[in-house]
Amino acid sequence: MKTIFIFICGLCMAFVSVAQKGVVVPKNIPKSTLSVWRQVKNDTVRLRWMPIEATDWVANNSAGYVVERAEVVKGKALVFKRLTAQPLRPTFSTPNSVEDKAAAKIINGDPVTTSIDNKLGQQEASQLTMRHLTASLIAFKSFKTAQKMGLGYTDSNFEKSKTYVYRIYSATAGFQVENKADTAYVVINAARNTTRRLPPNLQKEELEKTVLLTWPAASYLKDFVLYHVEKSEDGKTYKRISTSPIMYSNKALKIAYFKDSLTQNYRPCLYKLIGITPFGELVTAPTFIMAMGRDRTPPSQPQIQSTRHLGGTRVEIKWAMPAQEGDLRGFWVTRAKNISSQYEKVGRFVSKDSTRVVDYKADPTAANHYRVVAVDTAGNERASFPAYVAMNDTVAPAAPKGLMAKVITDKANKAGTVTLTWKRNIEMDVQGYYVYFANDPDHEFSQITKRMVADTVFKDTITLQSLTKNVYYKVVAVDKHFNISEFSASAPAKRPDIIRPVAPLITEVAVKEDNTVTIRWQRSPSNDVVEYQLYRRESGREWVKVKSFKSPEVFVDKLQSESVFEYFIQVVDDNGLVSEPSITKTAKRLPRSWTAEAPVLKVTYNKESKLNLLTWLYPQRTQYRIAIYRAETKQGYHLIGFAKASESQFVDKPLQSDRYKYVLKVLFSDGQESPFSAAVEVKML
Fold first, then answer.
1. pLDDT score recorded for residue 242
2. Which of 116, 184, 105 is nearest to 145 (CA)?
3. Buried b or exposed e, range 387-399, using 16+ CB within 10 angstroms
4. Residue 19: pLDDT above 90?
5. What does the alpha-carbon distance between residue 320 and residue 301 come to, in Å, rounded to a whole number?
6. Which residues neighbour 622 within 8 Å (Cβ) at sequence distance 6 or greater?
7. Element (H, E) at 61
8. Is pLDDT of 10 > 50?
9. CB of 62 within 8 A of CB of 107?
10. Position 469 pLDDT exceeds 50
């Protein structure tokens, strides 16, 4: 029987191990099939044991049990001495007590029946299992009878100041004691009496003409194996009301219980618990508990007849009772936003004659479910079935806020995925959203959601094959009465760009005598460029980025050696795409050889013709030509023309009036050069 087996296994928790500091124990001891309890009291050691399995109990009744004892000496092995000249077996030569007679009958194998207050009789069990359980209960009830059953031993011949290890095992032949599973070890400190616990406090549950008593029996398995309950109706005299010992067997509950049936409610009684130790001692709990039966029958169920929205936050609820009951006290009206959620009380408690209540705090933007709860004089309640009221809601929710769009490019499919997110509306009756789009914020927006979106996240796919750079989105909220909000603010989503921008053209690379080079370039024709990047490479080396610019500029670089330097420009657009490099331009330092003489320059401005006349003086020599350079305000010099050796003037007509500077340089046919002439500045009006 499963319940009996659980009970016997539970008693194994009382087994005391020898794994104690200073005790040298045998190795490889198997888990014992013998449960043992011990007690030190009044200069006496009492031992109680019981096999867990019914078959072992029957076999050991014939073989008997051997009890041995060893003194604990720190650091030394245990030396056991037998305390019993012969194995302990059942002996009932002259049964005296009721327990003796019952034990003799059980051991002899007579059929048994028992009545224990845990409904064991509801299950069929083998006679052997029932005999085993009954024998256990008898041994627990009387230690003297347990000794006669071969299940107990008393030792009084020991020294109080010492510690001992007792070994109990079956006298079955053919096995070594140390390796037998039916061998149990118990450590005894003879100097200390066993502390006796008191039974736990009772807990009560007062039911209709019934008191249910419970206590935490699982926490007292080593102390008490059976219980009795006593009751006092006058507060003075207690009477035992448990006809048989109460056995705790259901380990899953952690508690034992006893149910007392009463003839009437509201008559208080006192209850106390008595615990029975494994040695048959009865220990009475020092405290009692007062309990009585109570009216637990709820009133009849109210029936809601109508619910009506009166406008705004007002709702009328009407109900009726199927029958008039004398102990009816009144009603609560309760409300919930969901039919299965927790209902909250509405207004005040109303009298038993009331059949109508107006709720002045209904939520016009949410669902409103109502129940009427009848309450009797004992506090018992019964609720009606829920009733829903349809609210006349014409107020649209607010426009959604916080709309944002994030685009991820799918280059393989030439498309983009747009993830839209926005803040959830604070209105409780908003059931979802619709999403709209347009190619221009001033155009009419079209709905792209076929179904209502319950979340605040939506994903859309946009094509890259379009002339418009952006897509614009808006969102509206819809409540449970299908009122639609205004549009949210639009959120732009830039179409993914997979076309690289066009590189600009370098328009000038001008080298000066101070070994600087001025680089100019045009603006890229692509309108989404966000950065210009200038790269340089010295002959025989890698390309290096010199500098980044936000817009077309002029950059002056320093030529650090006689090598040839190359330059190119590339641009980056707002999607991070990089253009091809521009056409490469080169620069090299000017020759270092020149004559000592420089031309003497004079510039005359003709106001009428808007011309600058350049004249110079230079001694006649071998073949040469004059190089003429001009510089505008805050700009570098650039070559504007040449003059032959036979010429001594040059006419320049700039495109606009400004302040200009001019310099000359003599270039000889053998490659020599003169220094630059002194700069002459002229202002054109």
1. 93
2. 105
3. bebebebeebbeb
4. no
5. 9
6. 668, 669, 670
7. helix 54-63
8. no
9. no
10. yes
CATH fold for domain 203-291: Immunoglobulin-like (2.60.40)
Who has greater pLDDT, 122 or 662? Answer: 662
Annotation: CATH topology of 2-189? Immunoglobulin-like (2.60.40)
3-state SS string over 452-474? CECCCEEEEEEECCCCCCEEEEE
Note whether 269 and 233 are within 8 A (CB): yes
530-565 residues labelled b (16+ CB within 10 A) or e (exposed): ebbbbbbbeeeeeeeeeeeeeebeebebebeeeeeb
The C-alpha atoms of residue 434 and residue 446 are separated, in whole angstroms, by 10
Going by C-alpha positions, the residue among 45, 117, 48 that lies closest to residue 88 is: 48
Rg (CA), the chain: 54
Coil, helix or strand at residue 3: helix
Its pTM stands at 0.51
Question: What number of CA atoms fall less than 13 Å from residue 418's CA on the CB side?
Answer: 23
- Report yes or no: 329 and 376 within 8 Å, Cβ to Cβ: yes
Give the amino acid at 77. A
CATH class, 600-683 region: mainly beta
Please, are residues 307 and 319 in contact by the beta-carbon 8 Å criterion? Answer: no
Q: Of the CATH numbers 3.40.50.2300, 2.60.110.10, 2.60.40.3880, 2.60.40.10, which one belongs to the domain with range 404-494?
A: 2.60.40.10
Superfamily the domain 506-587 falls into: Immunoglobulins (2.60.40.10)
Helix/strand number for the chain, H first, E second = 5, 44
Tokens matching residue 222: 């080593």
Cβ atoms of residues 599 and 519 within 8 Å: no
Domain parsing of the chain, residue ranges: 2-189, 203-291, 303-389, 404-494, 506-587, 600-683
Give the residue carrying structure tokens 């993914």: 496
Helix axis angle, 2-11 to 127-141, nearest 10°: 40
Amino acid symbol at 588: K
Q: What is the pLDDT of residues 404-416, one digit of tens each?
A: 999 887 766 667 8
Q: According to the model, what pLDDT value does residue 8 have?
A: 45
Q: Do domains 303-389 and 600-683 have the same CATH topology?
A: yes
Q: What is the DSSP string of 119-170?
A: TGGGS---HHHHHHHHHHHHHHH-HHHHHHTT-EEEE--S-TTSEEEEEEEE
Q: Which residue has the tokens 């029975």?
A: 276
- CATH number of the domain located at residue range(s) 303-389 in this protein: 2.60.40.10
